[in-house]
Amino acid sequence: MSGGHRSADDIDDLLDRADDAADRQAWDDVVELATSVLSIDADNIEAAGLLAKSERGRRAMQHKRAHGDGDRRTVTVMFMDLANFTALADTADPESIQDVLRWYHAQVGEAVADVGGHVARFMGDGAMAYFGYPRASEGAPQQAVHAGLDLIDRIEGRITDISRSYGVGIGVRVGIHTGLAVIAQMGAPGRLERDDIVGETPNIAARLEALAPSGAVCVSEATEALVKGYFETEDLGPQRLKGVSREIGVHLVVGRTGAATRLD
């Protein structure tokens, strides 16, 4: 096959991916992909149109946020905390607790960042992370589960040492849910300081985290359907979660299958 044909194939693939990114309103990805097309074919009309579309999309999002309107999209939210941390805090001295938290926060940050996620905030021994926002990603659910399992692996040895030192058994538990949410600027009137995800999705993720056993990851049926084949799971059946009007199917993640694609 000639180099020209290879370039044509590259262009088609890049344009397909850019179209998909535009459907997901992932404007940064659209710009990157369309620019790659133009580096091969400077006169490509479709790529130029996608760049213009991304600019309009960005302006629309900025307008919504400037007026306090939210952006609606599908995201994966992960909550995690240290089980039995309150008992540990009652036993250990404040300096030791501070050291533990700093180390734990670092492990959370690295586990989430390694797969392209974003830590939204830390709340003592708890943390919340987003996948699929602020950077959209088709593989957000898989990224979240990988991050949860990696976090457990990262801190398991140290947690064992802490438990032995203070006589308090602790561990990490993780809850993950994928669903529609609204991205909106939050803060006091006149002081909108950050984008935040609001709606049922983060609430369900938080409830799943509380339901998870120590050293385990619990996912909703919505997330499990999107990661099926990539991970081994155990069906825990429908559960009634506080603050959620309907029962939610819950699955315990047992481990990775090693599959690179669903066909594997």
Low-pLDDT residue spans: none
Mean pLDDT: 84
Structural class from helices and strands?
A: alpha+beta
Helix content: 40-55%
> Beta-strand percentage?
25-35%
Order of helices and strands: HHHEHHEEHEEHEHEE
Q: How many strands in all?
A: 8
Largest sheet: 8 strands, mixed
Cα distance spanning the termini: 29 Å
What's the total helix number?
8
Provide the gyration radius in Å.
21 Å
Specify the overall morphology: elongated
Produce a short descriptive summary.
With 264 residues, the protein is of the alpha+beta class. Helix content is 49%, strand content 29%.
What characteristics describe this protein?
29% strand; alpha+beta; eight-stranded mixed β-sheet; 264 residues
What does this protein structure show overall?
With 264 residues, the protein is an alpha+beta fold. It has helices at residues 3-23, 27-40, 45-66, 85-91, 94-113, 140-166, 200-211, 221-227; strands spanning 71-83, 118-123, 126-131, 171-188, 191-198, 216-220, 231-240, 247-256. Strands 1, 2, 3, 4, 5, 6, 7 and 8 form an 8-stranded mixed β-sheet that branches. Strand 7 and strand 8 form a beta hairpin.
